[in-house]
């Protein structure tokens, strides 16, 4: 949680954000483990402030400047993003860099099984997500000023190096299954096929806002892990989430009767995405999903480390992360061994 002087923050926002007059309220959104996010009230208006956490941070982590840049670049594309208003420097009334953006009103679904909707609405929700992902990957990065938003080529090899390093740097416990995954991914690395697009990096249902009156994505949020990379990374990452248990602290679809609920199976979802983009069915699908598991557990290991160091955005969840990380490593290893 940030500490700040309210009057100083109000003066800063009034000077830098068009339409902001006074700070009538600031409320931290309770969910999320990454960049602390706040709802600002100014008269009849509402804004969202998203900041780097306080304390020591990993290099390249919590990049609100990258989030600001990519959302600004996508503003005139078919990809739905909030309007962004201001990006601060590092010296701010909060003590860290932050951005201010539009408050988008709509629905956020925390449970991917969508228990409050009927089967037809669930089908449309998943189709809307599929269309949004395909639209993002169809954007030409150079055409929106993002040609330099990431390094070209060898995406999975570079990502494995990055997340292996971050995992080892933040490891709180010995985890043999995670060590095995690092070796397996290196031994089964896919060849670079030249595919490249803007990748979101955390594409899942609870990072989207849906229209209040229809099954349409009106805002795709949480872009801090976005870069230029292989589009199948986003697709496999979302499908990996559905393999997680639908119980406890997980928000997956494991064990859920998708057909009965009107939810697409993984093969059908992948086929719809490929159809929208004119692609053949992907080879090496197991590698992409296992990679997604390892990447997420490395991210969660960083969250655990911040919690142990007292810098977690949502410290109430820190204690359960050890079990979550160990379960993910075990499940990913079993998937890899099955092929």
UniProtKB/TrEMBL annotation:
Keyword DNA damage attached: no
Gene3D superfamilies the record matches: 3.90.1200.10, Phosphorylase Kinase, domain 1
Domain of life: Bacteria
SUPFAM superfamilies associated with the record: Protein kinase-like (PK-like)
Aminoglycoside phosphotransferase domain: residues covered: 26-251
Keywords: Transferase
A Pfam family assignment: APH
Tagged with keyword Phosphoprotein: no
Molecular function via GO: transferase activity
Descriptive protein name: Aminoglycoside phosphotransferase
Lineage, highest ranks first: Bacteria, Pseudomonadati, Pseudomonadota, Alphaproteobacteria, Rhodobacterales
């Amino acid at each position: 949680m940030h500490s700040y002087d309210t009057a100083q923050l109000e003066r800063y926002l009034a000077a830098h954000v068009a339409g902001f007059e006074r700070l009538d309220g600031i409320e931290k959104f309770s969910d999320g483990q990454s960049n602390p996010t706040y709802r600002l009230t100014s008269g009849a208006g509402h804004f969202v402030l998203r900041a780097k956490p306080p304390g020591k941070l990993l290099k390249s982590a919590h990049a609100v400047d990258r989030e600001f840049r990519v959302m600004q670049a996508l503003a005139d594309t078919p990809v739905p993003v909030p309007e962004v208003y201001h990006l601060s420097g590092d010296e701010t009334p909060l003590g860290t860099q932050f951005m201010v953006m539009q408050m988008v009103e709509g629905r956020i679904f925390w449970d991917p099984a969508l228990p409050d909707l009927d089967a037809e609405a669930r089908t449309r929700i998943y189709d809307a997500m599929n269309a949004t992902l395909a639209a993002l990957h169809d954007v030409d990065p150079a055409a929106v000023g993002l040609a330099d938003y990431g390094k070209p080529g060898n995406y999975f090899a570079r990502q494995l190096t990055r997340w292996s390093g971050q995992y080892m740097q933040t490891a709180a416990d010995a985890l043999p299954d995670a060590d095995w995954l690092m070796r397996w991914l290196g031994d089964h690395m896919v060849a670079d096929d030249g595919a490249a697009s803007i990748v979101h990096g955390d594409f899942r249902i609870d990072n989207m806002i849906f229209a209040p009156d229809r099954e349409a994505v009106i805002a795709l949020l949480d872009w801090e892990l976005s870069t230029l990379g292989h589009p199948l990374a986003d697709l496999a990452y979302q499908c990996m989430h559905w393999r997680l248990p639908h119980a406890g602290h997980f928000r997956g679809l494991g064990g859920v009767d998708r057909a009965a609920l009107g939810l697409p199976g993984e093969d059908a979802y992948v086929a719809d995405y490929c159809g929208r983009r004119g692609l053949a069915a992907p080879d090496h699908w197991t590698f992409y999903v296992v990679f997604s598991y390892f990447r997420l557990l490395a991210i969660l290991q960083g969250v655990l480390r911040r919690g142990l160091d007292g810098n977690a955005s949502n410290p109430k969840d820190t204690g359960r992360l050890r079990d979550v990380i160990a379960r993910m490593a075990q499940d990913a290893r079993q998937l890899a061994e099955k092929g």
